[in-house]
Amino acid sequence: MSAKYFGLAILLLTMVSGLNAQTITGNVSDASGPLPGATVLEKGTQNGTQTDFDGNFVLEVSNSNAVLVISYIGYAPQEIELNGRNELSIILAEDAQSLDEVVIVGYGQTQNKRLVTTAVATVKSETIKQLPISQAEAALQGTIPGVVVQQNSGSPGSPQTVRVRGVGTPNNSNPLFIVDGIQVPNLSFLNPNDIVSQTVLKDAASTAIYGSRGGNGVILVETLRGQKREMKPQVSINTFYGIQSLFNQPNLMNRDQYLQYYNQGVEAVNGNTAPGFRGAFTEAERALLPDTDWYDVVFDDAPIQNVYGSVVGGSDRLSYSLSGGFFNQEGILGGEGKSEFKRRNIRGSISIDLTDKITLDASAQYQFSNRFTIPQNTGGAGVGISSFINALPPIYPAFDEDGNFFNPFINGGTPVANGVPINSLGAVTNPLFSIAISNNEATQDATNLNLSLKYDLTENLKFRGWYGSFNNFIFNRSFTPLLVQPEQQFDTSTGVNYTEIKSRQENRQWGGTLEYDFGKFLDTDHNLNLLLGYEAVETAFIGGDIINDTGSFLTNDFEKVNFALSEDITDATVVPGTTFPRNIESFFGKIDYNYKEKYLFSAVLRRDNSSSFGPDNRVGWFPAVSAGWVISEENFMSNSRTFDLLKLRGAWGISGNDQSSSPFAYAATVNTQTSYAGQPGIALTSLSNPVLGWEELTQFNVGLDINALDNKLGITLDYYIKETSDILLGATTPLTSGLNPAIENTGSVENRGFEVLVSYRENYDSGFGWSVGANLGFNKNEVTDLGETSFIPGAQLTPQFNDFATRTQVGDPIASFYGFVVEGVDAQGNLIFADLDGSGNNQLTPDEGDKAIIGDPNPDATVGFTLGMNYKGFDFSAFMSGTLGNDIFDATIRYDALGTNRPAAYVTEPGAPRNVVVSTTPNGEQLISDFHVQDGSYLKMKNVSLGYSLPEDLIDQIGLRRLRLYVSGQNLFVLTKYNGIDPEIGQNNTGSPLNIGIDQGFFPQARQFILGLNIDF
User: Fold this and answer.
1) 564-572 long-range CB contacts below 8 Å, 24 or more apart?
2) Which of 9, 34, 391, 936 places its Cα 20 to 30 Å from the Cα of 627?
C-alpha cells in the first residue's frame, strides 16, 4: 500500500507543478534601445532563451515565483523575481568592467563580438556625440585602425573621403554606405546626433555578403529608434554654440622681408628687371608702404551652432522616435553667404507588433541643406582665392583711399599705394575682390524611407522583408554679379553670368531574408544559424541639366537672382543632362556555426547580376569563409586569471567594386554631330566590350582578440593582404583607328597592412574612473599590374607648373608624386636636378627621362589616441589623431608669376633658390620636383571636452533625468613638420583619388571653442 500512496503523491505533485508552470513574455533593453541576443535563464535550471532583434522573449517557467537571470555581454546581469508577474520590461546597465559588445554584421543580423570571426569595428553614439561634427563620416577619423578619413576641405559642409584599408583602385575607392539596411550614396544627409552606431566591415569575409558593392569596405549605420516597453516619452535636447578661428598660417614674408628680397633681386639682375617692373625701393618708400597680413585681412572669426532634439517612447507592442535639428556653420574664409553650411532635418521611426508574430518597422527622414562655397585649393587664374592670399605681397593694400578693392593689376598702368608706385601683377588679384564676385550655392533636398516586415513563421524560422528609397534633389547655382570700380579697373560687366544645374540621385531597394536558428542541436554544444536572402537595388543619377545666361540681370543680389530677372533670356544656353541607371539583382546565403562557442565557422556566398557590365559578364559569384578559435574556453585556460577572452581568427573572401565606371562603359559610343560632305551623319568613336565586369577584391585576414584583467584591457590585432584585380582601365587602341580606347578589366593593386587597437579602463569605489585607448593602422600600397597601360598621370597643376604631379605605375603606390629630383643649388642659386637617365643633359634644364617617383601622399600609418576621466559628475575626454609617412606637395607659391610673395625662409635661412622675383629667367622652382615635397605626417589634438552633470537628487527635484554642461575645443594644436596652413589635406575637389595630398591653397580646418548643453527629460 505504501508504494501505491507514494505513486499517487508523485502524480499529485506533478499535476500541481504543471498547474504552476507559467509563460513569461518580456523585453530586454538598455538606455539606447532593445538588446537582441540577451540570455534569459530560469535560475537553477537549464531552461532559457534569447531575445529577438527587438529585445523580446517568451519563456515558460516552472512556477509563478521563479527567478529569471538576464545577462548580456557588456552589461551587468540582473536577477528578476517574478512574484506572479507574467510580463516584464527589463533595462540592463552597461558593465564598466566589460570590453565585449554586440556588433551589426549586415542584413539585420547581430552577433556577439566574442563569436565574430571577421574584421569589424564599431563607433558608438557616445563617441560620436563628443565631436561637434557636421558630417557623420568624420566620427571614424582616428577611431578605427585601417580606416582613413581625409578632410577634402575645411570649408563648412565639405564632404569627407573615406578609405578602408588603403586605396584599391585608381578609380572609385569609396566604401558602401548602408543606413538601417538601405544603401545610400554617402552620409551627408544624416544628422550625426541621430546615429546610434557606425560599424565598419573591413575584410572580404565580412563584406562578401554585399557582393559586387562591398570591395572597398562597408559602413553600416544604425539610427535612433524607440523601445518596446512601458515608458513615458523621453525627451533629449542637445545644443551648442561656438566660435571658430584660424589657428595656423604659413610663415610668409612681411613688408620688410619682401622689400629686402625684392631689392636683392633688382641688384642681382643689375637693374635689368622684367618689362614693366620698377627698380629698388628706397627707405622712404618702405616707410610709406603698408604691411598687409593677407591672412588677417581675409580670415575672420565665425560662429558655429547646433540645436537637436529627440523624443523616444514605447509600450509593450509599440515603439517610436522623433527627432529634428538645425546646424549652421559659417566659414572663417568668406563667412556668411559665401562660405557657409546650413542643415535642417527631421526624422521619425515607429515599430508596431501587428500580431504576436508580425512586426512592422518604418522610418522616414527629410533633410534640407544649403552649402555656400568659394573656390579654393586651386591655382587657376581668377578663382584661386587661397592661392592669391599666399601670392599677393604684403606691400599691396586691401583697399584704396575711396574704399574700393585695391587692384594689384592695372592694365597699361601702375598701381600706387600711399603715393608709392608698385608693380602691376597680372597673375593674382585681390582675394577680397575674388570673394565678392564668387557666389556658389548647392542645395539638397534628401528624403529617406525604410519599411520592413518581420514574421516569425516558427520559433526558429523568421522572415524579414524590406523596401527602402533614397532621393536627393541637388540644385547648384552660381552668379558673377556686376561690380564696377573704374579707379581700380575692376569691371565685371562683360563677365556677368548666372548658372543653374539641376540633378537628382535615386536609390530603390527591396528584398527579403529567411533566417533559421537551429539553436542547440545534436546535443547542447552545437549552434547553427542559416540565412538566405534576395535583394534588388536600383540606383540612378538623373539630370545634370545646365542652364547658363551670360547677359545682364535686373538684380545684383545672389539671393534674388533668377532667369526671370534676365534682361535678355534669349542668349541663355541649355545643356541637357544624362541619366545613369544601375540595377543589381542578388541572391545570398550565410552560415554561422560554433561548437561550445569555442570553435567558430562562418561562410558566405553571394550571386550578383548587374546591369553595369557587358551582356556576356553580368553575373558574379562572391564567396567567403572565416573561422575562429576561442582559446580561452579550452580546459588548459580555465584557471587563467589573466585572460577573459583569447580568440584567434582567420578569414578569406572575394568581394567586388561596381562603381569604377559609368553604367554604359561596356557599350560602343557614337558621335551624332558628324557631317559627311556637308550632310549630317553618325560616327563610331569607341568600341564596345561585351565582357566588361567589375573589379574584384580578394582579401586574407588573420586576427587576435584579447580581453584581459577582468575585461579591463582589450587588444585587437589584425594582419591582412588585400588584392584588387581586373581593374577597369582604357585599352591600348591604335591611334590609326581614330577611336577612343575601350574600357577593359586589367591591372591589379595590392594593399598589405597591420592594425592594432588597445583600450584599458578602470573604475574605483570612490567614483573616479578613467580610460585610455590607442589605435594604429599600417598599410603598404603597391600597383602590381596595369595591363597594357604603362602609367596613369594625375593631378594636373595649372598654371603654376602646367604639368601632372602624380603618376600611378607598377611597383609604386597609387597617385605617387612624380617629378624631378633636386641634388642641390649651384653657385648662382639655381636648382640642380639629377640626371637620372644618364643622358648627359644640362642639369639645370632636365629632360623627361630624369623624372622619378618623388613622394607618396598615402600614409604609411594612421594613429588615434583617446583619454577619458570621470569623477562625481565631472567628465573629461581628449582625442588625438594623425598620420605617419605621407607626403604633401606644396603648390601654394606662384612660381610662375613675377613679383609674388615667398616664404620668409627665403631671406632668413641660407640656401634658398636664386631670387627671380623680378627676372623672367627661371631658377628651377617652376618645375615639379621634390623641392616642393614635404613630410605630411602630423598629430592633431582634435577634441578636448570638460563637462559637469548635476547630481541626480537635484535634477529629480526639477523634473529632469540629466543636465550636463560642457565646454570643448577642437583642433587646438598640431604637431607637424609641414610648413603649410594645415597638413590634414585630402582629395581635391575634382573627386579623383589621383589628386590627393596636394596643397594649392587649402581651406584650413578651424580651431573651435564651444559651450554646450545636454538636457534629458
Assistant:
1) 566/498, 572/547, 572/548
2) 34
